[in-house]
Amino acid sequence: MNSTSLSRLSARFPARFSARLAVAALGVSAIALTGAAIAQDGGAAGGLILPDNPAFFAKNDPNHRKATVIVNGEIITGTDVDQRVALIVNASGGKVSDEELGRLKLQVLRNLMDETLQIQEAKAQKVDVDNSEVDQTFARIAQQNFGQDVKAMEAYLAKIGSSAASLKRQIRGELSWNRLLRRNVQPFVNVSDEEVREVLKRMQEAKGTEEYRVGEIFLSATSENRDAVYQNAQKIVEQLKGGGSFVGYARQFSEASTAATGGDLGWVKRGVLPTELDALLPTIQSGQLVGPVEIRGGFSILLLIDKRQVLTADPRDAVLSLKQISIGFAPGVTETQATTRAKAFADAMGAARGCANADEVAASLGADVVNNDQIKARDLPTPLQNLVLSLNLGETTPPFGSIQEGVRVLMLCGRDDPKADSGPDFEQVQSQMEDERVNKRAQTYLRDLRRDAVIDYN
């Protein structure tokens, strides 16, 4: 909720801004949908002894909104918290323990309190966000991330225990805060031309060295609460390794300024991060999670999103034209039989003499063919990326798959290599530096709002 790094982007690229809201704030994925379906399709009673017509001693009325906290006279209810938590739980496939759920609710409550303060401050400063703007952003999220209309998305949110109102309030909070910062903070942040030129010079000097795109969840700690924070960080790591959304957990738990962007630090070079984290970068692979690592002021959990060479063309950005040729196996086939057929299949495709003849050979083998003429190498599974990039035109990969899923090969039919990356221009570097400084001032601004707030707990 405390984001300023995308305030500029929200004005220039509203579609990208709304997509970030959907992915980072909503955090709903195909995995989450699957998890919800599994939960619904479980056993009738799961071994529980349940009467057909239970008599309840008390009613749990979802429409009864009990105040959890009052912030400057505005109520945040338990229902508000539960509906926001439902988004995060669903993004984690429903795999959240009772203990983790308790921590999550406390963090969501804190976020809702900050969100309330931000909306209140925007109103006090006469920075208005019309309902139509919120509705438009909500509709874009539905279209871009769900491929469905608004009513279908509203029904989906209700199904998982959340609501359209909860997500719209979060949208209003981000729009209000970003607009407030653009008016009251950003005009007073300056980055000199000399500072920008110095950054560009260092980038040119670093050409060819590796840089890393890193996600971070930072938890502050003192000598008094160090052990408790470390245990909390370990439990977050367990949730992430169990399929939890890194973006979702970063937004809710990270105390760094990058929390609002899902913990994404962007591309960093060696020597930028604290020494304890910097030493880890060359030792981890893309997609790997490490931590918690103790650094000055607390603990960090790192996710290496990607790595590349500075100002150098990345071969993984090559656009490929591929044929996928696959065969299946009859039920009851033995491993020996499958291996024999897979070898014959691979030999035949290897002798196909290029893509022009591939379809004919595939048909003679009873194989299926799928063409893709616009796929980047980096979009392939990691084990296949270097393998495909090492192929010459018309060559195929070794066969891969299983008896259950069938066996397939990829044949390279075309490749457009990327041009060398010229890096960000002067304006892009200046914009990034300004956003970082606005972000720091935004944190101070929010701390002042918290300090001056009148808060009543139930």
Order of helices and strands: HHHEEHHHHHHEHHEHEEEHHEHEEHE
Q: The biggest beta sheet, please?
A: 4 strands, antiparallel
C-alpha-based Rg, rounded: 26 Å
Q: Give the C-level CATH assignment of the largest domain.
A: Mainly Alpha
Strand order of the largest sheet: 4-3-6-5
Number of domains: 3
Principal-axis shape equals globular
Assigned CATH architecture of the largest domain: Orthogonal Bundle
**Share in β-strands:** 15-25%
> How many E-type strands?
11
- Helical residue percent band: 40-55%
Could you give the distance between the termini? 24 Å
Mean pLDDT: 79
In CATH, the homologous superfamily of the largest domain goes by the name Porin chaperone SurA, peptide-binding domain
Named CATH topology of the largest domain: Triger factor/SurA peptide-binding fold
User: What structural class do you assign from the helix and strand content?
Assistant: alpha+beta
Name the poorly predicted regions: 1-65
Keywords: Chaperone, Isomerase, Periplasm, Rotamase, Signal
Domain PpiC: 209-306
Signal peptide: 1-39
Organism: Novosphingobium arvoryzae
